């Protein structure tokens, strides 16, 4: 249960049934390299037609291989990069084009936990300064010393000793540094936290501690997370829902158990089985191939679904080109023509 007596608890239970985050038809395009001098830059479609809802107090796990668009989606929600198509609705407000004061306010409500606790903390700042900085920047305190009590409370929340406040980050282990990063992210009482691979730079032995801490904080403060990860076991542990990204497309989204126990999309099945095929003759050659084995251009012959190479639903012969992201039942969504829709 959310402890509303805690002063870092989320204090906006406006309409609990309304998703805190709704993303509709989101697209993000980057300018790539120019094909010829002075020519127009090549367009990189990093995300296309991403749609989902995230309920308050829940965790959405975002999974996908390298380059699938996970961080881009996180940054688009944080409004740190321009959106090419679609909308992002946070707490009922369309934030797709926010600027100025509204954007500044948004940076309080949505915070980021970084992947690498070694590079994300300024080595010249003491822990007190690191955690108090956002409070100072947003005018919540007028000096670092004024923030000492609040920062002390944050240290308690992340299970770090108070005497850590006057030390520099290099004196801490990776797990402790990530706790400092989490305390800094909590300082402004955010309602949504984007955690971009928050444990992948840590020793396997401390990953579970940090993930468990994040779960405890979710309970205590009523936080909502978007949790980005490669590691499928970590995502399974922390997420309520899981979305699978592949080459900028969301191919499947469902609650955790449905994704792991009854995946629908061919690519999700490949990702979950993830057993490398040593024999090149037997390797899949299209979009189902793991990134390391995939040729730069797809070499599936003829028109048809780009996942047909690993699909058992149509005997591998689906001729329809663009599979829709459609509801299949019980909140299970999949980008495939052959899942049954309701
Ligand atoms: N600033 C940028 N300019 C141009 N292309 C970019 C930019 N940022 C990301 N991309 C491209 O967008 C695609 C998605 O990248 P993104 O970093 O979101 O993937 P990811 O799933 O987070 O990968 P990883 O797991 O390796 O972090 C990639 O093709 C990447 O090269």
UniProtKB/TrEMBL annotation:
Keywords: ATP-binding, Nucleotide-binding, Transport
Keyword Acetylation: no
The UniProt record lists the keyword Mitochondrion: no
UniProt membrane topology term: Peripheral membrane protein
Subcellular location: Cell inner membrane
One Gene Ontology term of the molecular function aspect: ATP hydrolysis activity
Chief location of this protein within or outside the cell: membrane
GO cellular component entries: plasma membrane
Residue stretches making up the ABC transporter domain: 23-272
GO biological process: peptide transport; transmembrane transport
NCBIfam families listed in its UniProt record: oligo_HPY (TIGR01727)
Family: Belongs to the ABC transporter superfamily.
Matching PANTHER family: D,D-DIPEPTIDE TRANSPORT ATP-BINDING PROTEIN DDPF-RELATED, TRANSPORT ATP-BINDING PROTEIN
Name the record gives this protein: Peptide ABC transporter ATP-binding protein
Protein's organism: Celeribacter ethanolicus
